[in-house]
Amino acid sequence: MKKTVNVLLSSTLVLGLAMSALSAVQTPIFAKGKETTYLIAYKNDIPSDFEERIEELGGSVETVVDEVGIVSVTSNDPNFLKNIKKDKTILAAEEELEVYLDQERPEAADGQPITDVPQPDWDDPDQNYHDLQWDIKRITNDFRSHDISKGNSRTVVGIIDTGLDFDHPDLRDNADEAGSRTFVPGTKDAWDQNGHGTHVAGSIAANGKVLGVGPDLTVRAYRVFGASGGAQQSWITNALVAAANDGVDVVNMSLGGWRWMAHNYGEKGESASMVAYKRAVQYAVKKGVTVVVAAGNDSRELGNLHDMQEYWKETYGLDIKGPSRVVPAQIPGVITVSSSNEWSTDKIAFYSNYGNPIDIAAPGGDNGPEYDRLYREDPKGDYLDKRDFHYRALSTYPTYLPPYFTSDLKGYAFMHGTSMAAPKVAGIAAVIKSENPKMKPNQIAALIYKTAEDYGKRGQDKLFGAGEANIYNALTE
Fold it and tell me: For the chain, what is the domain count?
């Protein structure tokens, strides 16, 4: 039996993290193998004899998140799930679904990679890409917020993602390798073998050829993704609880997926995954953690029953009668971030989810106005060659990985997605926290909303929420 308790552990774009690093998507089609993993949510505290009960039914405990009453179990007994549900101490149990990485890859009709940006010269301290950072420049008012506050090393942002390149020249002074963890079985460290987590980290705390929102903040990796594999719900839940126990100030979760809330594969009641997310977020917030999440990249209206049903039908051929939710974007207590773009204050990025659950927007980039126009006319059209990658967000990328396909740069990459928008808000929240250590998560969120640039319709709207977040405004309020 393998047993993993989060206090002992050492760490979703689609998380193309979804289309070029958009956000992660949970697949509803789960292929059963010889051995199946199950997620169990107990009604209250986990019983002292839970392990014996599970083993009696042919299960083996894999992960225990005691603080929120969540356990993952493996079993090759086809009757395990039916039998374990008879346990009256259990609230919900199900086959454990995974969030998968589904990175965008170059295609024959693809836009041309960016080659007009010089390669990094690590020996030249005067070379930088600051002028290319339209996204960070806009939310910092041309980096003027850095003159007021760059954050501080005592303020920690936990990044639940693919890990970090701890030796990246722009991150090595701010990345806390010793405090980082991996929750991926078979891995021993939180080094990034995908690129997504390092890109996210740069938007928060890079300090070099690119700059983050808070160049003096500390970033810590809670790795839940391998190089290309999935992340189980229990790993994500475990990571969030662990980050809260570690005392981080802000958590960024540029991942997510679709889960049924009321009708989980024909069953009434909330799924174990929903229970796990809700409890973990609540646990973190009670410990003073501001939790920032990506809205997702399906171009769907969150909370719209018809739009959700249409998505399931078009994507998976499933007729869903009940409501569905995107998690963690629609979990109470989080700051949910949609993606704005470089060229419009009226339109969000073509891929970004929207709707009443959106709290705030931040620059996540896109493929430019021409592609946007064509996409909105026909979302299924073939015009990949019209993509202009310059409109995406430039940030750090692992120096030991081949260049990301949107450019020939080593150590940096142009990506887009709500995965790229959320960390800007996480960085803003962390800088605010560094200046106001006693501020609670709801107070930090309120300040972010109050000081946002009011894009879109006047006031709160379904595209931008309260508007586009702006750290300069927050610091000068």
Answer: 2
pLDDT reported for residue 324: 73
Regarding whether 151 and 83 lie in a shared domain, the answer is: no
Q: What pLDDT does 14 receive?
A: 36
Tokens representing 433 are 């926290």
pLDDT at 421: 97
Q: Which residues are catalytic?
A: 161, 196, 419
What distance in Å separates the CA atoms of residue 206 and residue 217, rounded to the nearest whole number?
Answer: 9
Please give the model's pTM, rounded to 2 decimal places: 0.92
DSSP 3-state assignment of 441? helix
Which of 50, 78, 100 terminates a domain? The answer is 100
Instruction: Give the pLDDT of residue 19.
Output: 36
Three-state DSSP class for 35? coil
- Give the C-alpha distances (Å, rounded to integers) separating 459 from 122, 293, 449, 456, 463: 45, 22, 10, 8, 11
Domain-embedded: residue 301? yes
Q: Which domain holds residue 22?
A: 4-100
Same-domain check for residues 439 and 325: yes
| pLDDT for res 269 | 65
Answer yes or no: do 400 and 271 share one domain: yes
Nearby residues of 312 by Cβ (< 8 Å), 6 or more positions away: 28, 258, 318, 319, 320, 324
Strand 231-232 and strand 218-223: the pairing is unpaired
With CA atoms as reference, report the closest residue to 443 among 474, 420, 410.
474
- 56 with 174, same domain: the answer is no
Residues of the chain with pLDDT under 50: 1-33, 260-265
Give the integer Cα–Cα distance in Å for 211 and 374: 32
The dihedrals phi and psi of 440, each to the nearest 5 degrees, come to -90, 160
- Give the other-Cβ count within 10 Å of 242's Cβ: 26
Other Cβ atoms within 10 Å of 333 Cβ, number: 20
